[in-house]
Amino acid sequence: MFRCSLILLERVQRCTVFEYDVVWWLRPLLCFIDAFFGVIFFWKKNTLPKNIKRILIIRIEHIGDVLLATPLFRALRRTYPDARIDVLVRSIASPVLARNNDVRAVVCNVPWLSEGGSWKGVFRVVSQLRKKPYDVVLEPHGDPRNIILASVVGTYRIGFANRGLGFLLDCSLPYDAQQHIIERNLTLARPLSVGDAGRELSLSLSQRDLVFARNLFKKHKIKDAVCLSPGVGAGRDEKLWTVEGWASLADSLSETGCDLIFNGGPSQKDLVGSILHQMKTEKYLNVCGTTTLLQSAAIIGKCNVLISIDSGPVHIARALGTPLVGLYGSHDPAMCGYTDERSISIWAKDIKALSPHTVMSAYTKLRRRLHGKIIDRHYDSRQ
């Protein structure tokens, strides 16, 4: 009884209401649930398997989230070269892993994130995964729904419990909201004694996609390409810049003599159409909604600069080595962006108030930093 009391006290201390990344009124409830069930499940904690042959990473979020986890995939592969390493992803993000030699994509469209997702589909995928449970399951997002999935398909579960249900994890790690997502993902590998494999993002393109982009540039005589991605996969309005801002920026860029390319998915065609309607210049190429994800990535890979909101194209550019200017609203770029010699991040908490002059100044600064040269964008698909 005394030991149970100590365990309960320890659980309450670990589950302080200020630790949860949820709305305030849910915090006391989650604290109670985690503390109470933490005592019960304390006796059912599994130990880390000695011979790890099957690893699953749950990454059923967005394209950028999957790319941000590629350093983790690479580190796991180097430590466990003979293991089967699978990644649970949505179909929209699975193409970025098509040529990744570190992992194998397992598609699962969940109903809370995908229009085409269904509970029936989730149960079908989980049933398949349960036929041969994984030795280790990693859950980088801290999503209680993902933690439940991990608990039914894996022997040893590692993750963050910042939104509750940590009692279902065998190894619950502290969630540092100030840490860059790449670093936070890599902390999941520490219990596995995984070595350092770098922080670079990985994305490999097929020769077919590279030829597509090359032919597109040749057909339209594009030399100094600047790619604009106004809203690809942003998901939330607080990430989106204004139509007027994009139009003004495009006109200013056109005056410098660069070749403008508007890039995006089918859902962004109306947004890009509104921007084009307000622009003065008619010198641009609009491929929005006409390419596959990897064709779009190949286009970004051949551009000299990408200017994009906080979404997938930012991380695609980073993975392919394309210099970029990222526009951030709701998220601090220190946690999910890039700032170095080839990258500039602009954080405007009210992104709607961001001025085109600020973005244009950042672009000019980046080009000067690169000595104003047109960058040789011959991407090597083997990297």
Word description of this protein:
The structure is a single chain. With 383 residues, the protein is α/β, with parallel strands linked by helices. The protein has two domains: 45-192, Glycogen Phosphorylase B (Rossmann fold), CATH 3.40.50; 209-369, Rossmann fold (3-Layer(aba) Sandwich), CATH 3.40.50. It is built from 14 helices and twelve strands. It has helices at residues 2-14, 27-42, 63-68, 70-79, 119-130, 144-153, 181-187, 207-219, 243-255, 269-278, 293-302, 312-320, 333-336, 356-369, and strands at residues 54-58, 84-89, 104-107, 134-139, 154-160, 171-173, 225-229, 259-262, 284-286, 305-309, 324-328, 343-347. It has a six-stranded parallel β-sheet, sandwiched between helices. Strands 9-8-7-10-11-12 form a six-stranded parallel β-sheet, with helices on both faces. Helix 9 crosses helix 10 (269-278) and helix 9 crosses helix 14. The radius of gyration is 22 Å and the shape is elongated. 44% of the residues are buried. Residues 1-19 and 374-383 have low confidence and may be disordered.
